[in-house]
Every structure is written in structure tokens, then in C-alpha cells.
């Protein structure tokens, strides 16, 4: 809480080269890129960082194979290059994984023709991943016995990538990186509108935790409000070339349905892609693709039943999955960039490509659409645009992304080996501690080794099956701007995605975790979480 309070104080009536509104993936990479290159930048979000679309994805960093059907070859080529770049930059986080795809009889294309599309996709991917392989229905069963192949015409196996940990964690690490380079960022700070006066933007901000309002001045204003880009542009009187349409996607998380580490891919009953995705000891299934008029969406009984009906039809399970099997749910909108303000688009064919609309006169940027795969390009593009708007960028060639160097990793691994860190791994954990701490924290993982050496209890789990140590929670309290318990449980970690709410609340270590995170406010923050999540569940019924 101290980090946020300090940053809000620095925001109050401050002046910046660039103010970024929105802490989703587009805002996060913009801040990380600009701050690393020496620009004086601030970022605010009306909720928590990665609180909307960026925490409700399928956790995939893929090259857009589905866009081949619409003949968007240039987009697929660009996304494949972006995916490969992410893999090289974040080898511990963005990992290759095999997709096992089943094509049902009567599908709009023959199974072998779809397989040929994966060959084209592999070529676009510069052969970086393993080669695709065609499979008969019997071959699918041999590879993965849980697949129901009674109506399968055939299928194939190919490679793409996914985020090992969590989409929101990936996004927050860009926020953390921007803070390291001097960005002043704060969550739960909302823009009430901006106006241009005397060559500067004056943005009225409201601290949504204290209710205080104040003004921030900036030369450039970046609207990275995700699904609310159009809404904020109305507040500032900005007229843009693009606008957003919204597609709702939902996922259900259940106990693991298969022991293999493959993503099972199907075409659901509505013809759209449907995934069964490994998530550690759990499985994430979905998604839906429903057009919505507003970014304000919630999981409905129909959404839930659609996912359950499809997974039960597509898999051979010991018993059908029901609502009682659902551990957690994800629901959000995909903001799809549409060029032009009039007319009706074929929204189903709209891709997730991003667009940046620029007002040179007002020094204003609006970022539309986008996806995790292409995020590094967004950060670089924003820095280039800001420089062209006349803002000094002292270190334009500075690389602002990627894991620390191999020498840093080798030092961490050597220290960890000498102290026997992996031997301290709890039996419930899905991977050794060395791998987990390095992936999540990079250079900061070395500090955690020192904490564990000083106090071995820092290597203990506080919440059963949560895969978070006491030292990680202490680190989060100091450096990760946790304002509400849900920030930690849902977005800095994925605890509330893999552990039932009732089990979290009953966990003996939860109160201690709250005390570490919030100090004297621990009990109030715990009750706030219980009340807010109870209301969320009731609204879903």
C-alpha cells in the first residue's frame, strides 16, 4: 500500500511528458517502453492493472492460425513473427505447446485440407516450432484418450505458444518494469476527463480509494483504456478513425481432465474455436464468441451451459461435467478494432489486430484492439509516435523488454542450488521452486533467496495448493501495489483461478497473508474480498 500512496502523491498536480490512461496490455507496454527510453511518464487505471480484457484471455500467445481462413496472410505473418519474438524474449514464460485439433465429420472443410493450413502456418512461423502432423481418428485416440472420436473425420497436431503462468501476471510485469525505470503508476485512479489548454493536457483524476480528486498535466495523452477507449474519447472530444466492437469470451476452470500437456482444440457447436487448456493442476475450457453492445458483461447461465455442453460432447469423461465442478470462471470482452464510424461490420471475421489513431494537433493517441501476442510491437510503435510528436526520447535504442541476461539467471540458479532450494518445494507444487521463482520475478528472485536464508519459514506455503510462498507475498506487499485482496489472488497470482473461493477463505494462512499485504487494514480487506466475491457469485446465478 505504501508504494501506491507514494505514487498517488507524486501524481497529484504533477507534470509529465506522457500520461497513459489504462493499465491493460496496451497501456502497460506503452509505459514500459517510454519509461525505459527516458521519457517522463505516468500511468493510471480506474481499477486494478490488467483488470478487464487482459486478465480474461485464453492465456495463448499464438500467431493467429484462424485468420488464415479469412486470407489475412499479412496479419498471420506479422503475428507469427511477434510470437517468435516473444518466445525468444521470454523463454521461461512464453512456451511452445502442442495443439491437438479434432475435425468432426461434416465440418465446412475436409480434415486434410485444414491440416494443409497448419503447414502454411508453420511456414509463416519460420519453422521455429515443431512440425505439424496429420492424424486419423484412431491416431487422435492414441495421442489423447479423453477425446471423443466417434464423430471425428481426422485431425492434426501442431505447435503454438501459451503463457505458462497467467495473462494478468504477464501484463503486470510490464507495469513493474516501467516502475523500475521511473514511471509513476497507480491503480484505482480514474480519469474524469481531459481538456487541452495552452499546449498541454489537463486531466482530472479521482483516487477511487480515497475519493480525492486532482489534476495532472501532460504534453501527450495516450488513451489505452481497452474496451473503454471510445468512452474516454467522448469525454475529451476526440474523433477517431477506428471504434470498437465487442465480443464476449468466457472460460470455466475445472479439475484437470487430462494428464497430457497439450491444448485440445475443437470447433464448438456454433462453428467457433473451442479449447481445453492445461492450467497446472486444473483445466481451463472455453471460449464463447458473443457480440455485445457494451463492455459491461457477466457470465450467464447460458454461457456456462454452452461451455459445459460442448466439453461434455467433445470429450470422453468418466462423468459429465456440471456447474458443481466449476472452480472458477473468467468472463471478459475482446475489443475489436473497426475502421469507420458508420455501417455494420461482419464482426465474426474481425481480427484482433491493433490500430493507433493519432491526433498530431492535440498530441493524443488512441490504441484500439490488440492482443498479447503483438504487445512488443505496440510498445515500440507508441515510443516512435511520441518521438514524432516532439517529445524528447533520450534513449531511443534501449531494449525495454525480455528476461534478464543468462549471467543473472546462472547466478540465481547457482545460489539456489547451493542452498538446496528445490528440496524445499512443497509436494503439492507442479514445478521446482527454482523454475517458478525465476519465471515470476527474474532478477528479484535473488532477493527472495536471501529472505529464505535469513528465515527458512519464508519458503512455506501460506495457502494450500496455491503455489505461493511467504516470501512472495512479502515481495508483493512491497513492490506489486496490492490495493485489494483480489488484486493479489486473481491478478498478481492465479490463486483464485485454481482454488475454490470457499477453500481460500477457510485457508489458515489467508489471515497471515492479509496481515503481510495490508498490515492494520488486514481484517477490513479480508471482509471486503468476502463481500465483493459473494456478490459476484450471486450475480452469476
From TrEMBL:
Q: Which InterPro entries match?
A: DAO_C (IPR031656), FAD-dep_OxRdtase (IPR006076), G3P_DH_FAD-dep (IPR000447)
> What residues does the Alpha-glycerophosphate oxidase C-terminal domain cover?
430-500
For the FAD dependent oxidoreductase domain, which residue ranges apply?
17-338
Transmembrane regions: 107-124
UniProt KW keywords: FAD, Flavoprotein, Membrane, Oxidoreductase, Transmembrane, Transmembrane helix
Cofactors (names)? FAD
Q: Which domain of life is it from?
A: Bacteria
Protein name listed in UniProt: FAD-dependent oxidoreductase
Which species does the entry assign this protein to? Zhongshania aquimaris
